[in-house]
Amino acid sequence: MKLLTYSVNNDSLRLGVLVDENTIIDPHQAYIEQLKQQGQQRAEEIANALLPTNPVEFIANGDMALQSAKEAIDYALGHSENTSAIYKKDSVEIGPPVIKPNKIICVGLNYKNHIIEMKRDFPAHPVIFAKFATAIAAPNDVFPLNSELTKKLDYEAELAFVIGKEGKNIKAEDALDYVYGYTVANDITARDMQKRTIQWLQGKTLDKSLPLGPVLVTKDEITNPHALDISLTVNGEVRQTSNTEQLLFNVNHLVEFLSGICTLEPGDIVCTGTPGGVGEAQNKFLQDGDVVKVEISGIGAILTTIKEESVS
Predict the structure, then answer these.
(1) Mean pLDDT of the chain
(2) pLDDT exceeds cutoff 70 at 312
(3) Within its chain, how far is the Cα of 128 from the centroid?
(4) What's the rounded mean pLDDT across residues 39-66?
(5) What whole-number distance in Å separates Cα of residue 105 and Cα of residue 129?
(6) What's the confidence (pLDDT) of residue 119?
(7) Most CB atoms within 10 A, among 13, 24, 72, 298?
(8) CA 288 to CA 74: how far, in whole Å?
(9) Taking Cα atoms as reference points, which of 244, 249, 262, 247 lies closest to residue 126?
């Protein structure tokens, strides 16, 4: 299943499911219609509990919610002439597939060629840092560049995975049981801000510095997260190209490692690191008007436009 969020007429973002290139079904609304057709008097209350419109709450409901959503989607497709749950993708605003997670954990220095280009030693343990939820941006959003704040804005193509259920001290062999799905991320980074102190956070969590999307693909559709092509272009020029098989610490290892540090919760986002080819290594930083595309096989592509914005 391919999950996203969408908005109609600037209303709040709500969960949707992409069923083909240009068709979105709202599982919450479809479920209400299905229950009412079955004569259920408390359809809205049941839908609110089982198929909430908030993606993190939906994820927390696990397999039961997924199964009910599939049945509701089938119902909507079978009653397409009489449903209000179907939307054309080009008629709505698409948001990030996960909003307001409890945690965003990022991994640095996790591809060998990136470690080499940054002239760093191979880490014995994953290098982790955080972003705040205000960093999350939609898959086709604009990043507001403040060139007075940073002169070295960089890009980082990354595979991100989302936690599906709570876990602590998870074993590597069980790790994928705790993963809900996968999405594309761009860890936009202000390198000069990142390096002006020994802590990276200030250069890593600017508003809208984590575009996500275009969808969250549930893990049943990606049988091996360690065999995905990943690439990034700036204005059509290829800057990064690799495969997730090159991860130094793979998804299983990261789940085990991170869950030993803190309890992982439904909706938590983990960004797995970026391959070689970042702008800093080439002295090619992002400028006003640049368009950055990140693509991962089996998931899709996100586009971010860099736009200079004056600060009054």
Answers:
(1) 97
(2) no
(3) 17
(4) 98
(5) 6
(6) 86
(7) 72
(8) 44
(9) 249
Q: Over range 150-157, report the average pLDDT.
A: 98
Span 4-22, pLDDT tens digits:
999 999 899 999 999 999 9
C-alpha distances out from residue 310 to 200, 204, 287, Å: 25, 20, 14
Contact by Cβ (8 Å): 264, 167: yes
Q: Is the pLDDT of residue 295 over 80?
A: yes
- Structural contact between residues 77 and 19, judged by C-beta atoms closer than 8 angstroms: yes
Domains and CATH numbers, the chain: 2-94 (2.30.30.230), 98-308 (3.90.850.10)
Only one residue has tokens 């709040």, namely: 12
What pLDDT is stored for residue 113 in this prediction?
87
Closest among 277, 266, 208, 203 to 241, alpha carbons compared: 277
User: pTM score, two decimals?
Assistant: 0.97
Q: What is the mean pLDDT of residues 33-56?
A: 97
What does the block give as tokens for 245? 């098989």
Query: How many angstroms separate the CA atoms of 258 and 98, rounded?
Result: 20
